[in-house]
Amino acid sequence: MPADLVHLVTQLARCARAAALELGTAPTAAKNAALRATADLLDRSHASILAANAADVAAAQAGGKAPAQIDRLTLTPDRLTHLAESVRQIAALPDPVGEELEAWSRPNGLKIRQVRVPIGVIAVIYEARPNVTIDCAALCLKSGNACILRGGQESFQTNTALAGLLAAALAAAGLPVAAIQLIPTTDRAALDTLLKLDHLIHCIIPRGGEGLIRFVTEHSTIPVIKHYNGVCFVYVDRQADVAMAETIVVNAKTQRPGVCNAAEQLLVHGAVAETALPKIAAALLAHGVELRCDPASAGILARTGLAHTAATPADFKAEFLAPIMAIRIVASLDEAIATINRDGSAHTDATISRDEAAARRFQAGVDSSVVAWNASTRFNDGFEFGFGAEIGISTDRLHARGPMALRELCSYKYLLDGTGQVRG
Questions:
Q1: Closest C-alpha to 182, from 160, 206, 214
Q2: Residue 27's CB: how many other CB atoms inside 10 A?
Q3: CB of 194 within 8 A of CB of 123?
Q4: What is residue 66's predicted lDDT score, i.e. its pLDDT?
Q5: Where does 36-110 show beta strands of DSSP type E?
Q6: Among 201, 193, 228, 197, which Cα is nearest to 214's?
Q7: Distance between CA atoms of 399 and 122, rounded to whole angstroms?
């Protein structure tokens, strides 16, 4: 590994650690000023950002990248406006740093308080998702964490342009510019070095495909918060409102099929399959979705003349990230729950039902980070939850689960106030 590259990444991490110690006690007003400056710069810099992004998109298209990858890579004026708004929302949220979680006194008079504190230095490793550069930087800044951003080669020019805006905003607010740093190379050796700097970096968050996340998890000596994939289910219960089910399934599958909270799997209760499935399937077909069916659902669609193909066993555990949906008929609510827990990825699952008792059983029984009733899976999102943005959606069970925002980017410490107590 080139010594100069090791030195570059290590020095960048040292600067981030120093910046984290300063940012951890920075006034809320200064952090909010930097966030508002970032949003203003985003609004004023559409032309330069979109020019950089166009170059990245052209290179990705020439390289034969999949449509879902191109969609994640592409920025538009609307997406930039949405990104600026998410930063302003983060600025408007309460500062979690210093929040008192609990307080109590001991019989000896010792007073103990548990308070939120930043994690420290967070490294975010991601692929063709330039919005991550802004979302993660803004959340880390507000929560008092320094962040190191390592984006993919596909979005390098866009990320570089966005990182320049972030540096300008930090400087304008009088905060350390090293609090947000983009690794200025796409050389894989830089990532190898980064993953071993456990004395300087406190947490790694990978955002991208399963291959990237497994690589990071297997090679990092730093704790990793992750989700491998988004095999998300919608279950249409025997008491479903069919019109509602049609609307929700179409939205969950087609609103943005290339994202991790898009629905990939459809389960339909056998008691309503003959009437509900043809209507839902026809709506999906009208949106260009390929339907991969088990024998029971294939029989229903064949009788109604709706196009479909036979599913393979792999289809029923697949994250397609494309206009494809796998369909199965189940005999009961319990079978739906068991199927999701076996074949899903513990990310986001939904049921459509007018039966509240059944819906509550579904929500209790499905072991996923977000379980919805009569709502699209697409709502598992930091912006939609009112968090402003998210740094990722965790399917882990330790520390954080679901959309990770300001509170999930904090740890805590204990403050002890005494009057001279000593332990006997």
A1: 160
A2: 12
A3: yes
A4: 86
A5: 100-105
A6: 228
A7: 14
CA of residue 290 relative to chain centroid, distance = 26
Across 196-229, b (16+ Cβ under 10 Å) vs e yields bbeebbbbbbbbbbeebbebbeeebebebbbbbb
Residue range 265-314, pLDDT digits in tens: 999 999 999 999 999 999 999 999 999 999 999 999 999 999 999 999 99
Q: How big is the chain, counted in residues? A: 424
Whole-Å CA distances, 410 to 13, 99, 115, 406: 19, 10, 10, 7
Residue 227, SS3? coil
Strand partners, 404: 392
Q: Nearest to residue 347, comparing CAs of 210, 214, 241?
A: 210
Rounded to an integer, what is the distance from CA 371 to the centroid of its chain? 16
Separation in Å, CA 209 to CA 230, 259, 377: 10, 10, 19
Give the DSSP letter of residue 230: -
Q: Is the separation of the CB atoms in 201 and 181 below 8 Å?
A: no
Residue 259: DSSP 8-state:
S
Helix axes 242-254, 270-286, angle to 10 degrees: 50
pLDDT in tens, 355-412: 999 999 999 999 999 999 999 999 988 778 888 777 878 877 777 788 788 999 999 9
Residue type, 326: A
In angstroms, the CA 365 to CA 29 distance is 43
How far apart (Å, rounded) are the C-alpha atoms in residues 163 and 180?
Answer: 8
What token pair was written down for 106?
């001991």
User: 351 near 362, Cβ under 8 Å?
Assistant: yes
Q: Which amino acid is at 184?
A: P
Distances (CA, A) of 164 to 33, 71, 138: 17, 23, 14
What is the per-residue burial (b if ≥16 Cβ within 10 Å, else e) of 342-356? ebbbbbbbbbbbeee
The structure tokens listed for 169 are 């905003």
Res 67 pLDDT > 90: no
What sign results for the dihedral spanned by CA atoms 301, 246, 70, 141?
Answer: negative
Contact 268, 276 (CB under 8 A): yes
- Residue 194 host element (H or E): helix 188-194
